[in-house]
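=== Given protein ===
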Amino acid sequence: MKYFHWISIISGIVIFNCGNPNNFPIVDDRSIRLPGMPAQEGSEIVAEADGLIGVEPKSPYSELYILDSIRVVVDDPYETEGLFDSPRTLILYALPNGNSIEWTMGKHKTDDWHFNIQHIDAQIKWLRENTSERYTVVYLEAPELSWPAWKESHINYGAMITKVTDSLRSMYPHARVFLISHSGGGSFINGLIESREMIPRWIKRIGFIDSNYGYNAAIGRKIDSWLNSDEDNHLTVFAYNDSIALYEGKPFVSATGGTWYRSKMMITELGENRFLAKTDIQEEIIQYRSKDDQVLILLKQNPTRGIFHTEQVELNGFIHSVLAGEKSESVGYEYFGKRCYDQFIRMETPSFR
């Protein structure tokens, strides 16, 4: 039986490398405010802090709280006896601003639109059905439903994120770990990268689904070193031209404040040490891909000046973030195409225990 153990938080000051050799303006991801996310300024849905507690995952879902009320749900449908050390992929999914785990998992018809914009539960079920990999998913919900706000309120957020990820990984010590995020969830990934000298070798995939607002050159250098350290490491970045998008007739992201601009920064900086081939793969979608398939950056153009923030997840985006660069990439599904996972959408929200 595996248990978490309480690990005391190491207090300290996180030192940032603010180098900016390409003269891109620095954007603080904590300042990003997206339309249609009413809870991102704060929420009454805040759990009581139980500390880092012991838990053995039950089939299929287990709920726990870590540190200062970070809510976690583990989706592990496999028989747990004797399988903790078995090969599997552990996906840590950092939730978007203003979204609960229930909304993120998704379900069928409801009066609340939040349930129909991500469907991570159905997408992971599709992956389990259509690949031979064991996927265990950990949903990470920030207090006040905002990772950027949580980071802003904790000077030692880097040490705290390290404790969260290391402790969750201890459940499956031999698993490949994927870090995937949407919207403000990218702040969690950025916090992990910023606070470590290098990205841990056990992280095999990093996925930003319209979530790389806080990207900077220092993060880029660490990602570059991490990619070079193992040919099995993969980076996926999906963005749309939010710099010209309109909400109620007005721009809501500055020309340099959104994921479109941050993604172009990544292309420029990561492209210094590897060739990223540019291809028009679909109508209005431009692909930048490295020859070794380790890097995939997809940019959706936006001639209608619409908002495609959640569609990048909903339209098979989570699946594509997991499979890009693998032999099963685009087999049985299309990024930004028809939802391939509808048959797996839950009828009701699951109960957690």
